[in-house]
Write a structure and sequence with these properties.
382 residues, mainly alpha, 80% helix, globular
Length: 382
């Protein structure tokens, strides 16, 4: 294989990843708004926001079993499911149908993102794999910066139909781009020794890191999912800019957090990240102006920029080299389970306490993360 990174296939797959995550992030903060406007209860809003992650986890457990059909074929199946379900929201007018559709949508997103990553690994030179995956991941980062704010703008200034069609259009364009790539992979035989279902879900040796990832994703998912609802409740305008500012500081803080981790270890990165994120939550639930809310986005970005890569790296470092793929999958499983469970429970509580007050509970979760970190530091010296 050539050592060239920016080939036609790599460029196409990187653009595709950005479009795919843009489609997802269009809907993350706006689906709770859509559900609420359909008359959903707080619990139902939480289900709409959280059930998506559970189905993505479920399908991810079996992606290795269908891989023999061809990675590109499986990718197209995921895209097709995602696009059709996204368009179906245009005609749904009951919360029950929306919940079912969101569950099915998670299957599509789980397939598409899994096989997009599998395809790009086929075209990145082995000697440049870290660099290549870094650039590939920028697509999701850019999507997170732009799509939530644009999605809120479309929903509040036009209507839900424009939002869903725009989201589906991103998926369609992604499919067209991939169709122009050269042949990447063919059907392949899969070893039956891939691992049990439990090992696919949670790699051995990752327990402590996995627990902290779940706890942090409860907080992280609550911000991404409910911040627009909280801003609406508090009559704070320009909530969409929260995502632009937050993602900018995630991008800026990642290199700093990475150097801290490499030089001083996991604790030196996770501790300040946890403190920054707790500050963000306190600022959110006490916000009386848009300026305070958007300042909280800075701390949200720095905290997430430190915590997300540090948790993933710690998890991967906790296993043997042959289990790194399993550890990576574990990281995303924990993110999804924490986000899904947190959004569901917090959505249920929102009917009683309101969306702004939810962040008081989330701040308590982050304080618990801090306690676990300190105990882990004293006992395990990481």
């Amino acid at each position: 294989m050539s050592n060239k990174l920016w080939t036609k296939n790599f460029t196409a797959l990187t653009l595709t990843n950005g479009l795919l995550f843009s489609s997802f992030y269009f809907l993350m903060p706006t689906m709770p708004l859509f559900a609420a406007d359909l008359g959903a209860s707080g619990t139902q809003v939480g289900i709409v926001g959280g059930i998506f992650g559970y189905s993505a986890i479920l399908i991810r457990l079996f992606t290795n079993d269908v891989r023999q059909l061809g990675k590109k074929f499986c990718f197209y199946v995921g895209l097709g499911i995602s696009m059709l379900v996204t368009l179906s929201f245009v005609i749904f007018d009951s919360i029950g149908s929306v919940i079912v559709a969101r569950f099915v949508q998670g299957f599509g997103f789980g397939l598409a993102t899994t096989f997009a990553a599998a395809l790009v690994l086929e075209v990145i030179p082995a000697s440049r794999r870290g660099e290549g995956l870094g650039y590939f991941g920028l697509g999701s980062t850019v999507g997170m910066a732009i799509a939530p704010a644009l999605g809120i703008f479309l929903y509040e200034n036009f209507n839900s139909t424009v939002l869903f069609v725009t989201s589906a259009l991103c998926i369609l364009i992604a499919g067209v781009i991939v169709s122009q790539t050269d042949k990447i992979s063919s059907a392949e035989k899969i070893s039956a020794s891939y691992g049990s279902i439990s090992e696919r879900f949670l790699a051995r040796g990752t327990g402590r890191a996995a627990m902290l990832t779940i706890l942090f994703s409860v907080a992280y998912g609550s911000v991404n999912t409910f911040i627009a609802m909280a801003a609406r409740e508090a009559n704070l305008p320009n909530a969409g800019f929260f995502f632009v500012i937050g993602t900018t500081f995630i991008f800026l803080s990642r290199p700093i957090g990475g150097k801290l981790f490499d030089t001083h270890g996991a604790f030196a990165t996770l501790l300040p990240g946890t403190i920054f994120y707790t500050i963000a939550l306190v600022m959110i639930f006490s916000a009386k102006s848009s300026a305070t809310l958007l300042t909280a986005a800075i701390f949200h970005g720095i905290g997430a920029g430190f915590l997300l890569p540090a948790l993933m790296t710690w998890m991967i470092n906790s296993v043997k080299s042959t289990q790194r793929d399993a550890a990576s999958a574990t990281f995303y499983n924990m993110l999804d389970i924490g986000t899904g469970t947190g959004v569901l429970l917090l959505g249920t509580l929102s009917g009683t306490f309101g969306y702004m007050n939810l962040y008081k509970f989330v701040a308590v979760v982050m304080i618990f993360v801090l306690i676990v970190l300190l105990r882990t530091r004293s006992r395990r010296g990481f």
